[in-house]
Amino acid sequence: MSSDRIDLDALMAEVRERIREKREKGIYSPDVDALLRVPLPGGRRIFSDDLQDPLASLAEALDEEVEYDPRSRKPIVGPLITYARKAVISLVRWWMGAILERQERINRLLAAAYDYEGQMAPRFGARLERLEREWKERREREVAANLHSVYFQARFGGDEPVIRKQSEAFVDLFAGRKRVLDLGSGRGIFLQLLKDKGIGGYGVDLDPRMVAQCREKGLEAHEVDALTHLRQIEAGSVDGLYARHLAEHIPPGELIEILRACRRALAPGAPLVFVTPNPATLTVGAHTFWLDPQHLRPIPPELFKFYLEVEGFTEVEIRTFEPTEKRLREDVPEGPIRDNVKLLNKTLFGDRDYAVIGCAPAK
Amino acid sequence: MRVHQFHPVLAPGDAMSNHVFALRKRIRHWGFESFAYAVETKPGVADVRTYRRMFRDVRPDDLVIVHFSMGSEVIDQILKIPARRVLVYHNITPPEFFGGINPHAAAFARLGLRQLARIAPAFELAIGVSEFNRRALEEAGYTRTARVPILIDWDHFAVPPSEVVLARWKGLRTVLLFVGRISPNKRQDDLVRMLAYYRRCIDPEAHLVLVGAYRDQPQYHARVVALIERLGLGGAVAFAGGVDDPALLAYYRAASCFVSLSEHEGFGVPLLEAMRFRLPVVAYDAAAVGETVDSAAVLLRERDLAEAAETCAMVTERSDLREQLVAAGERRVQDFDPEKVAQRTREVLGL
Hints:
- The complex is a heterodimer.
- By secondary structure, chain A is an alpha/beta fold.
- Chain A has helices at about 10-25, 30-35, 45-50, 55-65, 80-115, 120-140, 150-155, 160-170, 190-195, 210-215, 225-230, 250-265, 280-285, 300-310, 335-350; strands at about 180-185, 200-205, 220-225, 240-245, 270-275, 315-325, 350-360.
- Chain B is α/β, with parallel strands linked by helices.
- Helices cover about 40% and strands about 20% of the residues of chain B.
- Chain B contains 14 helices and 15 strands.
- Chain B is globular.
- The chains are: A alpha/beta, B alpha/beta.
- The interface of A and B includes residues 1, 44 and 47 of A.
């Protein structure tokens, strides 16, 4: 937070987080909710509350009878006032009747425009519902959310020792750091490596089972999505950030939002590492990348580097790793054929993953 | 030339009346004769003439400032007096708020809105005390408009705070304060509901103090009292009524947070008073509230009582946030510095 402007969004995010926690713990229970909705006793709601639910209130208003008691209770002059009022009422009753009739007509037209039950004409409601359902389904189908992930993990999921070996290469980048955040921490392999080296760190993951696994191992992990978490924490409160195989699961716009949120969350000069499949290797870009139906789109290394640079990170570099085992034989005599084979090997069977590494700008 | 000010009712402790008196003090200081007129003068207000004197007092080269916040039966008569005329608009609470609660107030609000539009041609200039009010004037058909904030006379508060009030409230952990007439548009009922959450989920000892006169809206007041009973909050909510300056000052000093859930304010003087007396402000963003507090308060954009309560709690508990708000509040009060506002008023009125 800067000294003269209060960051309302961050503050409100924290407020909402508190409320969520209280709901989870049962402190903010349904009966507290009921207290907040107790109507003002003794008559009609306040109009601005009616506006919150205008259709129901309209139905009520249409049924409301208007009552008027012309009797005056004042001493002595009371009967006279009562008589005068009644006289006026009888004089203007035709005019009042005409106004009433017009109002009645308006009421009927309005009521026809809306449903009597206080619902918007039902076809709109049904249409909206269908659209919402189809939109949700579309999102789910896009990432094959209906596929049972247990089977999928067993068939295609990464091998723990392999992941550990890959991750080891990056631990030293965080040497001496106190609070490194692992986005999409999964089974906590990287967190464990950090812990072994005495580096402070914690993770966030959307999958509650993964979070539970981490906690069993005594690692700190929270069940929350990356962007929400990055926006909730205080600016500059983490001094390192690692995200393995996260970027390929989200749309490009969200990735940029995450990078911006990272920049806010990272302390000046703190390192940031994103690991993702390397589509510059054709067997990855054209084949293995797509083995995970949850992968949305490959990100070429040059593009990822560009994202980081544009978002203000410094010392940005690309590091490729994980060479493909399969290779064309290069033991042919020196010459154009050998050069071509080498080029083919690089293009087809190059490194399978890459890391883009940068630093949060110094203040 | 003399300067005359008119408003149907002048009462002590009311922001609008205070504005009239503060302006009169300034105008006299600038060397003009100046008087205040009202149809009804409430006890506790001195040096106000009855509006009938205007027909004798006002000369054609005088300036008549008509303050407008409610319908009035005499306004047409007053506009017949030849003089230069300027309108100062303090806003009219939309009649919808009084529907089913106070038909009398609703009728007067409706009358006021109709009159406001009808009398537009009689004025050479119309001043809104906020941008929100100035826009309302434009919508009502006024062509020459200006925004000049309310003139606040801080000298009123150069008194020691009431010991009785301090003794009662100082030192309690959570005292949520709202200052404003008890009225449906100010939504004291929602403040009470918010307190129910606060006591259940944050601090079971929390108190809510509602400072402000409740005689004008007896029906709403009675219903809020019934709500307090129903929520089991008897003893946790205090209606202080209309209070004098030492007591008001003491409430600002003793409270932990000023909270407004008002849905309609033409300006919102108590928001600035709270800032002046170093109280952090949490306010629902409605009508002119946002522009009055600017960035010196926590503005609630959503009407969510749990969020409002948790925000008050954060402001109360977190000293860094509190200090930041208090500092921002003090700077914001400087923007309404009486000297600056008076100078601007003088320019606009051509005095």
